[in-house]
Backbone:
């Protein structure tokens, strides 16, 4: 397996959390409808350099939650340090569905991190986007049909969300290692000491660039998990040419916890 790089509560916060957990998803009747409803909420996460071409340096996928100004992604997608003033190296989200290039790039800041479960919560500037509804925090059933949406292989294929279909093939226990020694903070150490947690194994193909993207229940349109890892046989390049078709995703209940704790 390979990780791809590949606080106080307020009434306003309670409203944001409720919106994510219990908002009614758009009416869906099949995979095409799920994809159409979800694509406006899927963004690319990266950094900004005005002298580069392209200016946006892609790092992974993400999706909008809460009040429409928050994005969930993997913690390992983020750079170790990033300025917050829009200067070189600033953290950005790229909105493929925005009207023009200037409105697609949004400056973002990190508002919460859960390295033990490899999750991050960002806030971006500009107009809000439609949030994706989150599933309940009960475990997903094995055999559930899901859609994986994100940006496989980054901008090589253009920044248009791509969907792969699969199923939840297993619910298995895992303890995620910290991506760097700096990630071994007190919370991560407590998590490792407390033992493993359940993660979803998916019979579905993910690629470099899918990290941080949503895993959506095809029947309800709700997010059940966040893509995190893939099973690799050989090198990263061979994973692109000969994908194993086995991916792993962090259950959405940890996203709900992150929204509550920030």
Residues:
């Amino acid at each position: 397996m390979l990780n791809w790089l590949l606080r106080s509560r307020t009434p306003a916060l309670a409203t944001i959390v409720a919106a994510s957990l219990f908002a009614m998803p758009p009416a869906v009747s099949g995979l095409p409808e799920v994809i159409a409803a979800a694509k406006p909420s899927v963004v690319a996460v990266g950094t900004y350099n005005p002298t580069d071409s392209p200016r946006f340096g892609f790092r992974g996928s993400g999706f909008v939650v809460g009040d429409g100004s928050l994005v969930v992604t993997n913690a390992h997608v983020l750079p170790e340090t990033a300025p917050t003033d829009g200067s070189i190296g600033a953290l950005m989200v790229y909105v493929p569905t925005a009207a023009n290039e200037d409105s697609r790039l949004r400056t973002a800041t990190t508002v919460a991190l859960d390295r033990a479960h490899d999750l991050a919560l960002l806030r971006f500037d500009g107009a809000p986007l439609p949030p994706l509804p989150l599933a309940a925090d009960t475990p997903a059933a094995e055999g559930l049909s899901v859609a994986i949406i994100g940006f496989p292989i980054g901008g090589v294929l253009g920044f248009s969300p791509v969907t792969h279909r699969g199923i939840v093939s297993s619910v298995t226990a895992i303890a995620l290692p910290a991506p760097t020694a700096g990630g071994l903070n007190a919370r991560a150490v407590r998590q490792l000491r407390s033992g493993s947690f359940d993660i979803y194994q998916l019979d579905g193909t993910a690629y470099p660039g899918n990290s941080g993207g949503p895993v959506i229940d095809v029947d309800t349109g709700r997010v059940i998990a966040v893509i995190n890892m893939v099973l690799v046989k050989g090198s990263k390049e061979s994973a692109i040419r000969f994908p194993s078709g086995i991916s792993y995703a962090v259950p959405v209940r940890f996203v709900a916890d992150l929204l509550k704790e920030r």
Observations:
- The radius of gyration is 17 Å.
- Residues 1-262 form a domain with the Thrombin, subunit H fold (CATH 2.40.10.120).
- The helical segments are 11-22, 31-38, 101-104, 186-194, 236-241, 253-261.
